Amino acid sequence: MQVIENLKVKEKVYIEKLKNGLIVMIIPKKGIQKKYIIWGTHYGSNDSKFIVPGEEQVTEVPKGVAHFLEHKMFEQENGRNSLDVLSSLGVNANAFTTNTHTAYLYEATENFYEALDEFMDYVQHPYFTDENVEKEKGIIGQEIMMYDDYPEWKVYLNALEAMYHSHPVKLDITGTIETISHIDKEILYKCYNTFYNPSNMCLVVCGDFEPEEILKEIEKRLIEKKPEGEIKRIYEKEEETIVNPNVECKMEVSIPLFTLGIKCIPPKQKEKVKTHIAIEILLNMIVGESSKLYQDLYKSGVILNMPSFEYEFTDDYAHILVSGASREPKKFFDEFNQEVQSYIENGINEEDFARIKKMIYGEYVKEYNDVANISRMFLNDFMRGINSFDYLEEIASLDIDYAKQILVDNFKKDKMLFSVVKND
Amino acid sequence: MKQGIKLHTINTNKFKTNLIAIFLSIPLTRENVTKNALVSSIIRRGCQKYKTQEEISKKLEEMYGAEFNCGLDKLGKNHVLKFYIESINDEFLPQDGENMLKQSIEILSEIVFNPLAENNGFNEEYTNQEKENVKQIIEAKKDNKARYALFRCVEEMFKDKPEGLYKYGYVEDLENIDAKNLYEYYKELIDTCKIDIFVSGKLENTNIEQLIEQDSNLSNLKEREPKFNINRPEEKKPKQEANNIEEKLDVTQGKLVIGYDVEASKEEIENEKFRYIGMLYNAILGGTATSKLFQNVREKASLAYTASSSFSYYTGNIFINAGIEIENFEKARDIIKEQMEAMKQGDFSEEDIENAKKTIVSNIAGISDEQDTEIIYFLGQELSEREVSLEKYVQFVQDVNKNEIEDFAKKIKINTIYFLRN
Q: Which of A290, B217, B289, B413 is at a distance of 20 to 30 A from B351, taking alpha carbons?
């Protein structure tokens, strides 16, 4: 096993690539009661058009299959539901689907290995029937409707729709009631067989484990499968421009909600971590807790809380989102815009840069407090080709000139858009 | 430390951080609820040492992103003002000698006990801005429809009682509050409330008592006979029939909340076991993915994405929540009633009980893996004047038997059916 140690947080990760292509990552945590395991496949809501390894023609499936599959994986041929089985062992099991991956997980303080039997069994044995697929449409339909009542979700999705011309990241992960109505068991099996091959998956465990031992336990429970070739994923070519600089939608909210989006050029593999850190520093400087912009807008009552912000990226898209609530959302947009221009023209204050860098370092260290957080982070970063420790290593050497360049390259005025949800 | 002020230390080496919490607890009343919300939001704006939020933020950023947080909680009949600071343990910092723990105690105690004041009042500007802010928070109560539905059900069940109050207060009460009378109130609050200070982290080589004593803001606090309500549920008077409430808002999905009373005698409530029997009852009814509600409302009838129950020990209630299609109201209500009836008839197995115990015990085992969860657990014990260690907690849960759960089920009476629809 490959071992990578980080001296700053004093943690190690053990990495093994098995014969069937599966990557296993183990992060031992002595003395912690909780054990966490997460098994992800590099298959998310974005992947609805692809070429199955060995085939020539393109396969296209309805939007929402990855999420639908996630729901249906728990059903077993013996009539049992694996979520129930895991739950009755007293472990906390769950699953989720993102734009780029689907993950199954549980957290246990006891019965970890009994749960591991069930867990690895169900992820490797799908069981879909016409009847159980139909039934699920009702439950997912309710889930879609539940999200319809969240203005925070609407304002976010509208921003993505205004940002992307064709990339599926702009669509709801669940699909719509219409698209899921076309899903049947043949589609589910086809997607399962394509994307749930071990060579397209990664398993992360974190807790009080001996790395060699837990690796053996995992290997013992794997069924025989051969690694497959590359899955070719097809996304329409996305233009660099945005679709629409302004979108508005009416919903019952006590105060207008906004999401400000900036479309960016996806970073090159080697630059991903540095770009990500630099953008986090910049966003904190521009609109973070101690920023002049936030303090002024708060004092004048334009915003009442710190906006949240994030930088999202994969190999084929990247964007910045700043979200919050404001009585005068337009004012927030204009002032944010102006502040960015002033940073570009006047440069970055060195003292502020150094202070925010210290803060971001602290944030990275805090990520290592909790087994669930650690496991999810390692999986999520792995899906983007990153080892999570790199953030702790790269931050020290990141300098102000690099940040300036990232600012100029990414915070472009004509790539900025504004989504608002308000009452009337 | 002094009468009415208690220091709790949790020495653990599981974390990269130290977490310090200060809790101020006082009886929840309509008169004070809005003032408390406002106090909590004004004092984070500035203190004598760091007069503006900008100065506070810069100081925290300089401390490797130490995180200050505040919040309000309604725990039974008490209102708890919560203040936290989380900072990195020195061991994980790039340079030595920072003494982050000492710095953290200093800044937290300064914010809570030495706020910016002028002419015997809070800063006028901060007061006015925070009145607006609190007003907005109160008005936002309807934004999350599921949470709003639960709150409304509780409000209906506890009309004119402290338990039914909204923890952020009431817009109409804001008018009469100004910088001066609020500061007067604040001083009285600080002198009379129950104060609990928690420090959790790797503390083995630290003299924490000494650090606290050296802090001038903390050592200046006066002894007090703290005013707070010991948190125990009350005996319930039998209710003749259920209260039906329907409210309309712009929702796509209906939110159904049913509130039940646990009609137990004083003696039963005083018994320590009451809490643990209730937890097991709830886990079997609607607390887990194998529970009756999840299985029957969601999985079998495919009626809902969420269907669960919760047990509120402090108030002695069970609440059921379900997000359903509006036309399915009757269907869902009837299935829920059937499940309640099944619980009364003892229609659950030893296996169900074992599974529920496993889930609860596993959650207890995880408490010490989360700094804030562990602190909140011990605060709950403190406010109900119990001293149940995590080991004893597990024992209590293991000791509950089927008869006790059935008896508990028979004491449950429907109080209010609340439905939020379009």
A: B413
